[in-house]
């Protein structure tokens, strides 16, 4: 049996099919797996029949739901390259990333993207669900992957790239 302390601002309810977590940033509903729940004194107890690994996975999922409705998740991307820019227009992100045309990325409804221009262009992607935030970051990064020789492209904020030597530098 595993336990999880529930913050005061969070309300958790469940039935046989789903678990619902409500907090300051909104509500998240997730399909409930095959496990048992009990609540006592703002501590959630979770247990399954003889499977500790599944208990840990279910507990981590519930913990992510709680973090999502209290703090939210974010991911930062850096645009590295001469003339690489980003701008928000209505519900779209307009990217100038070295192609002959601008790229328009439609922002999903439950995701917020901020553009910061301090020390280069940084995109801050925020949302309640961890996998959606990282999926949007991955989709934007796939528009211009970092180049292995010059390092130009869209990087994760704390990503370190090892650049390859060019043909002329190897001699």
Give the terminus-to-terminus CA distance: 62 Å
* Dominant shape: elongated
Class from helix and strand fractions:
alpha+beta
Q: Give the tally of β-strands.
A: 13
Helical content band = 10-25%
Poorly predicted residue ranges:
none
Largest sheet: 4 strands, antiparallel
Give the key terms.
three-stranded antiparallel sheet; four-stranded antiparallel sheet; 19% helix; alpha+beta
Please describe what this structure looks like.
The protein contains 2 helices and 13 strands; from the N terminus they run ββββββαββββββαβ. By secondary structure, it is of the alpha+beta class. The strands form 4 sheets. The chain has a 4-stranded antiparallel β-sheet, covered by helices on one side. The longest helix has 19 residues, at 52-70. The mean pLDDT is 89.
Could you outline the blueprint of secondary structure elements for this entry?
Layout: E1 2-5, E2 11-14, E3 18-23, E4 26-31, E5 36-40, E6 43-47, H1 52-70, E7 73-80, E8 85-89, E9 92-96, E10 103-106, E11 111-116, E12 121-127, H2 130-142, E13 153-156
